[in-house]
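Notebook, student rotation project (T.W.).
Task set for the rotation: take a protein with a known small-molecule partner, predict the structure of the complex, and write up what can be learned from the model alone. Partner molecule chosen: pyridoxal-5'-phosphate. Sequence and SMILES entered below by T.W., checked by me.
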Amino acid sequence: MPRHDHFSTRSIHVGSDPDPTTGAVVPSLSVATTFMQDGVGKLRSGGFEYSRSANPTRSALESLLTSLETCPTDTVSEDARHDISGGESLVFSSGSAATAAIAHWVTLTEEEGGAGGRDGKGHGGHVLAVNDVYGGTARYLARASRPTGLEVTFLNMEKAGEQGIREAIRPDTKLIWLELPTNPLLLVPPVRLISDIVNSLPSETRPLILVDTTFLSPFYFTPLIASNGDQHPLADITLSSLSKYSSGHSDIILGSLTISPKTNQLRPTLLKGLRFLQNSMGASASPRDCHLLIRSIKTLSVRMLKHGLNALRISNWLSITATKDLNYVERVRYPGLKSDESFKYVQDLISKNAKKELQFLGWKFPFQHKPSSTTTSSSENEKQGEVVDDENSLEYTRNLGIPFGGMITFAIKNATSEQAEKFCTSLRIPILAESLGGVESLVEIPYGMTHSGLPKETLKELQITPNLIRLSVGIEDYDDLIEDIEQALKIALSS
Ligand SMILES: *Cc1c(COP(=O)(O)O)cnc(C)c1O
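Predicted structure of the complex:
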């Protein structure tokens, strides 16, 4: 009987078959660099030759990622453990190595499977990117890849609108680079509009859409799976820094590219070109890291759900603080909070799997909230003297919005950069450090840390001010986190 498995089941079982000889329920780690041949060029089944080009543990991770990123939850498959969609994943030694490979692909000759650059023969070619991409991505596209002739335009897609986006797509535009949500402001670019524009162009030559989904992981966002009755998935390729939520424990650096089944079918040379680059550039993932990452992904569902619940509740607390007695913070941003300017996109974009998990907890889609509850911006309700719901109840939380990732940004009102720093160093639980996505909460100041390399005008334009705080909400106890944030705000503002 054909059967299908849901995301959580596949995250545990795909790529993790029991060892065929010993029956060990955890597959063995394959550390060999090279593989015996039974004759010249006669490889054993599996086709492994040398671990830079392919390795069994890395392949297992790649099949797991392909399943999570490209198999719809209601796929019917012959076998629960090998939910095959026709998509493909490639794992690299870091998210940045994945960035380098796809950027190089733009400039690679068509003969080698590349996009051909400016004229098909390689060198040049154009990438149209959202204007506030991850700093390392901007650095790679604008600076490191310059010798390949690659040209990049950074565009505020929201502002540009349909006409502006159409005008920015050149005949040699090979790739449209999106990130969702953006960092650190957690904005959601109009991905559906961009997808519609690109899909209206001739399918053989249109640019491909890449989305960096690092901040959400495939638990919350799977743009390679067509949903809502769409003909096309929203994107062709996802890029993920697996070093963040997929690892989840701040102890692995890895990255991946995944190609949608549809794109893999229409552009079979894309995979060939990327495998060629993966092998040639040598940024291979260590099998040990791949093994550990397979383990991490087994708990992705439970972690992401808790990250999302904590972040929704904390962003609400910060918003209430901003409007009530404490009055310490402003510009709280969390796309899942119903008052957030990006909230309108969340219901459309959130994965079917995340919806399923949330429906079990009582969320309704389309989102509904009871106006009687006292939430973010409902000071009117208080005036009417209505009973305040128990803030520690699930019912209250369901009224706040939709869990959508674990990242929050906010500004401390009128704080100097010293006061913002004091806040970070006065926290007992969140650790002052770059990066995100671990089970432990991390806090940082983009102005002085992750985004300090940006030009001053860009910082100003993006409103990355010295008092802006980015919080990667971990899965610790909510009450402990709130108590800690409150005490640190008080210390900071009295310093
Ligand atoms: C961290 C990160 C990267 C780069 O990944 P590494 O694994 O650190 O090389 C790319 N994109 C986003 C959004 C990131 O957060």
